[in-house]
Amino acid sequence: MTCLRYSIFSFLFFVEALLSAEADTRLNCHRSKGLYKQGARHCLTLLEHTTSKDDRMKLLMELAACYQFDTRAHTYEQAVQVYEQFIQNFPDNPLCAKAYFNIGRCYDAFTLEREKDIQKARTAYRACYESYPDSQWADQAYFWHANSYIYKLTPRTAETAAKMLETFLQNYPRSLLTAVAHSQLSELYCAWLNDHRASIRHSEAALDHGIRDTNIRRLHLYRLGYLYQFKMNDAANAIRWYKKLMDESPMQSDPNYFAAKKRVEELTASENSRTGTAGL
């Protein structure tokens, strides 16, 4: 179950870094190449000689992004300071929603070392989706707010995360994160909340919404087979999902392939024995 969660987080961080680029390629040319320190120095130099309000807005956001995504230098604190400066200097700008969202993402990174900052992340996310409900970052802010309860799971935090993710699906039905939310809900209901029907429902929904990561898809296929077999006592559906997993593993590279194959053989033999068709 844990590997599914971390696979999702790794994939989302990669996508987030790509989507963060500003339209002005003159500013993000360094960051797009992974040259974050050079990009930050470039922005700081331009800020010293720029008085245009529009240019300063762009430079501050780009500077903050250079600090935020320089994961080797761990310059998250500098990123937060610049995002907060942007909000203070341009409180009526719609990009404040993005600034609040990225402050939350930065504090999420802090929690790897300083757990106390998770509440600051939640406060920033809430400011984003409550103050700017129509912004393009509102759904992402709500999603990551829910995910802030998943890092160190307990039955209580699992229940909170599940409630928030269910609300996320209701409030943002067209979000690009819908499949991922279903995927996480399936894991929470299966591993923590002991609601196997809900886990099945959300695994099927994650697959229906086109979860693309091959490993995550195969984990869901195996989970569905397992839940139908051992929790729902439904051999026919268990076999159906196990076979789908086998069909999606033509090179038999997935370790779950062999487990699924063995389950299908056992279930088929059991069903033949029950109906008296063994050996026919």
Could you explain how this protein is built, in words?
The protein is built from 14 helices and no strands. 72% of the residues lie in helices and 0% in strands. It starts with a helix and ends in a 5-residue tail after the last helix. It has a domain at 16-148: Serine Threonine Protein Phosphatase 5, Tetratricopeptide repeat. The chain is an all-alpha fold and 280 residues long.
Number of helices: 14
- The percent of residues in helical segments reads over 70%
Distance between the termini: 40 Å
Unreliable residue runs: 18-23
Q: Which band does the percent of strand residues land in?
A: under 5%
Biggest beta sheet summary: none
Global Rg = 23 Å
Number of strands: 0
Strand and helix map with partners:
Blueprint: H1 2-19, H2 25-28, H3 36-48, H4 53-69, H5 76-89, H6 96-110, H7 118-131, H8 138-147, H9 155-171, H10 178-191, H11 196-208, H12 214-231, H13 235-247, H14 255-275
Helix pairs in contact: 3-4, 4-5, 5-6, 6-7, 6-8, 7-8, 8-9, 9-10, 10-11, 11-12, 12-13, 13-14
Summarize the structure.
The protein is mainly α. The chain is built from 14 helices and no strands.
Keywords:
280 residues, mainly alpha, Serine Threonine Protein Phosphatase 5, Tetratricopeptide repeat, 72% helix
